Structures are given as C-alpha cells and as structure tokens.
Amino acid sequence: MSGVAEVRVERVRKRYSRSGRWVLDGIDATLPGGAVTLVVGGNGSGKTTLLRTVAGASTPSAGRVVRPRGPVGYVPERLPAELRMTARQYVRHMARLRRLPDGAERAASLFDRLGLRPGPDVPVGGLSRGNSQKVALTQALLGPTAVLVLDEPYGGLDPAAAQALTALLLDARTAGTAVVLGGHDPAVFPAADAVVRLADGRLAGSGPVRTRLVLRRRDPAAVPVAGGSWDPGRGLLTVLTADPDAVLREALAGGWSFVEGLVRS
Length: 265
Known about the structure:
By secondary structure, the protein is α/β, with parallel strands linked by helices. It has 6 helices and 13 strands. The strands form 3 sheets. The chain has a 6-stranded mixed beta sheet, with helices on both faces.
C-alpha cells in the first residue's frame, strides 16, 4: 500500500552474552505497511529472535529497528504455561498495559470469531495449545496497530479458527498495518506479499512471494498468458507469478481453467 509507514531493520545483530554466538548477524530488511511479510526459517535460524526484535520485545546488540508511530501487537510462539489469569482477565490486563480502552466488546467478538473453548473464564494455563493461541491472538488484535508481529500464529488452531485468523490478518493489511508472520514455510500464508528467509542468523534471501499456477486450456482459442510455459502434450500452461489473483482473472477470462497452485519463494 503506497505511502504507508514501514518497519526498517538496519544491520541488526543479536547475541545473548558477550562471548556467545550471533543469533542474528547483520540483518537488513524492509517490512512494508499495508502488506503481509513472512519471516521463514527452521529451528536455530534466528526467526523468533528477529520477530521479538521487530516487535520491540528484544533489544538488538547492534543495529536498529525503525518502526512507524503507533501501537504494536505481538503474539509470541507460545504463552507462558503458568499463567493463572483467566482468558478474560489476561486480555483486560494486556489492554491496560497497551493503554487501550477496556475492549470488552471487541474481546468478546474475537473470542467468538476464533471459537475460544470452553470459554473466556478458564485460566489460560489450563487451555489447550490451540485455545491458548486464540487468547494470544485476541490480545494482539484488540485495537488498531501500526505493526502486528505473530510468531507461528496458526500453531494448534482448528480449521475454522485458522480461516477466521486469515480474514483478520487481511483486514489488518487493508487498514495499513505492517503484518509480520513467522513460519517454517511460505505456504503458511499463501496471500503473503513478501518473504524474508533466515538461515543461521543471516539473511538467506528475500523478495515477493511467488505462486506457481497450472492452467488447462478450456477453449481451443484460449488467449496466451504472459510469462507462461506451455506443455502441448498435456495441454497445460505453467505460470510463476507474484500476483496470482490478477493472473487467474486474466486466464479464466481468456479461456483457461485452474488446475493447481503452489506457493514458492
């Protein structure tokens, strides 16, 4: 989204002791507002540390993170298991810390939309992983945010809750929020705008998320799709694109049918 404030990660390095290894080693990245950026990496890649640093929950040892003015919503990989507050109490507590209005109505709506079970008056520590995640998501989404950082946000969620979360994240993107999601694979959020890959604490690549679309000729006079690779033997056209929605609209209008889509980076 043009003109929306972005998050800039500038030569960020992080280690937890003077003689320890660099968990992050010279990370440069731009995380645009009005867009969803995936931070992808395996265990030990530095992904969680980078997300914590972007959210302001951890301070870089060197370099800096420049955030737009405004609230930051943050969902860690997992809430502390020893939390004794109920879901309702925890969300109210987080609202006070963030100087938000009480937010009871918004919280109730989010609990319902995400399908919190058995309900908001159960201690967070007694909830399943998926329901504990719904509580973490609710506190992060209570109010408008300039930056929204979510580490493994779909972990433990049932399909209905995952679908509701996707809709909420798309709403945040439309509102101009810089949405940053952590995961192991770009397929965690096919509608993402860009991906940042980490390996051993270093940037291993970044750029727009691309989708491989496979199309079949429905009409013998189908209009060719720009950039497509045609397989006449099987009657299939393969297109690698950063804008699958636009390509699909063009293809369906031009006499092609959709076969499959695979997210790549």
